[in-house]
Write a structure and sequence with these properties.
Number of helices: 15
Number of strands: 17
Mean pLDDT: 91
CATH class of the largest domain: Alpha Beta
CATH superfamily of the largest domain: Mur-like, catalytic domain
Helix content: 25-40%
Radius of gyration: 21 Å
Shape: globular
CATH architecture of the largest domain: 3-Layer(aba) Sandwich
Length: 439
């Protein structure tokens, strides 16, 4: 990519510094700013089609799986996810190759004048960066994960060929509402008039979504338990299951992601893939589907970093995510003892998160990830003790995981969880994943 002579940013780090400072512009109702931002750089989002993936938990993994399967069909596929774990470049990729740091700088420089004028937020600018990159790369299709909610999320400015909604639970209650119907209504805002909605939610959430689908004359494709056959095998190296959807069926599907919740995500991804095929977007090939699922991976999702002791990182950050994590640990691993390193945000349901993990964690080390939003570790530790969990405080994530590893035996399991920030801080301290360049 050719850089212009009038550079605004000297380094990638200075570019990210300006970009992250945009967090001061909080979320406001409406998509006006992101639409104006995209228009200022030629509406790049109009040059590719989008699979839009929303939900409370599982949307990132589901998006990864969809993108991986499509790429195995010789399609040029973009993937836009948030937040990142170690480095910003994780957010935007094409066929598994992350955006280059120099490209980030170039796109942000192009967007900066309009962003300054309209006071665009961090996520609005990043969404426009993704659109510019996907257009420049000439992707056939982009898979975009919703950042927050759906109806008013910046990604909703992208026009989708199918809307995917995974499971729904209570999170970001101060923005989306404190009950499932309210949250489901926000998530359902990504459904297009006359479009297709693949929905993994159930109960009251599905009832609300069904009403939105009817009002928009869309087509609902529910992903129910009957999509997974009776044979499910869960192992520390992945899972195997049988899949059925209408006339389509696959036996012994293999995924590398760990846990029963990832089987549910894979099922939603498969249903989405076959719906795209029904629309004539591509011709499905069984071998490509199997390869795509087997090779799909997502940073910080039940990720095994080391063994003896087993060291696992998972970005669960709300009670539903913690419950899925606890179930996966109980079903897949049999450690002598589990030590958890936890750093969580202050605006989360801390008691609910801890309660979900209480049966599988023997000792808790509470820490403070590098963000102003982090909960006070002393408060988290006290809440854990009230729930009967042995808890101590180690102030920084790097020191916390080193302490956990020093006390763990070879047959123990050390878990890092609570937020993307915590997992990212620990990975950086251990030298795992991408490094953040300063130039």
């Amino acid at each position: 990519m050719t850089r212009r002579a009038n550079k605004v940013f000297d380094t990638y780090r200075s570019c990210l510094g300006w970009l992250f400072a945009r967090h001061r512009f909080t979320m406001k109702p409406g998509l006006d700013r992101v639409v104006k931002l995209l228009a200022a750089v030629g509406d790049p989002h109009e040059r590719f089609r989008v699979v839009h993936v929303g939900g409370t938990n599982g949307k990132g993994s589901t998006a990864c799986m969809i993108a991986s399967m499509l790429a195995e069909h010789d399609m040029k596929v973009g993937l836009y996810m948030s937040p990142h774990v170690v480095d910003f470049t994780e957010r935007i990729s094409v066929c598994g190759r992350g955006i280059e740091q120099a490209q980030v700088v170039d796109y942000v420089e192009r967007l900066k004048p309009a962003a300054d004028e309209i006071e665009a937020t961090f996520f609005e600018i990043v969404t426009a960066v993704a659109a510019l990159h996907f257009a420049a790369e000439g992707v056939d299709l982009a898979v975009a994960e919703v950042g927050l909610g759906g109806r008013l999320d910046a990604t909703n400015a992208l026009d989708s060929v199918v809307s995917v909604i995974t499971g729904i639970g209570v999170d970001h209650a101060e923005i989306l509402g404190s009950d499932i119907p309210s949250i489901a209504a926000e998530k359902a805002g990504i459904i297009r008039e006359g479009g297709v909605a693949v929905v993994g939610a159930s109960g009251a959430a599905l009832d609300v979504i069904r009403g939105v689908v009817a009002a928009r004359k869309a087509r609902l494709v529910p992903v129910g338990p009957d999509s997974v056959g009776g044979r499910i095998s869960l192992t520390p190296s992945g899972s195997f299951f049988d899949f059925s959807h209408g006339e389509h069926g696959l036996e012994g599907v293999s995924i590398s992601m760990i846990g029963r919740h990832q089987v549910r995500n894979a099922t939603t991804a498969l249903v989405t893939l076959y719906e795209l095929a029904e629309d004539g977007i591509f011709e499905p090939d069984e071998r490509a589907i199997r390869r795509g699922l087997a090779e799909a991976s997502c940073v910080g999702r039940m990720q095994i970093i080391d063994r003896r002791p087993t060291l696992i990182a998972d970005v669960a950050h709300n009670p539903n995510g913690a419950a899925a994590l606890a179930d996966a640990l109980a079903e897949v691993f049999v450690p002598e003892r589990t030590v958890a390193v936890l750093g969580i945000m202050g605006d989360k349901d801390i008691r609910g998160f801890l309660a979900a993990l209480s049966d599988v964690v023997d000792a808790l080390i509470v820490t403070r990830p590098s963000t102003d939003r982090a909960a006070d570790p002393a408060h988290v530790a006290e809440t854990a003790r009230e729930l009967g969990i042995d808890a101590t405080v180690v102030e920084t994530p790097g020191a916390a995981v080193r302490h956990a590893l020093s006390t763990a035996g070879e047959a123990d399991l050390v878990l890092i969880t609570g937020s993307h920030y915590t997992v990212g801080d620990v990975m950086q301290s251990l030298g795992v994943g991408h490094s953040v360049e300063t130039g």
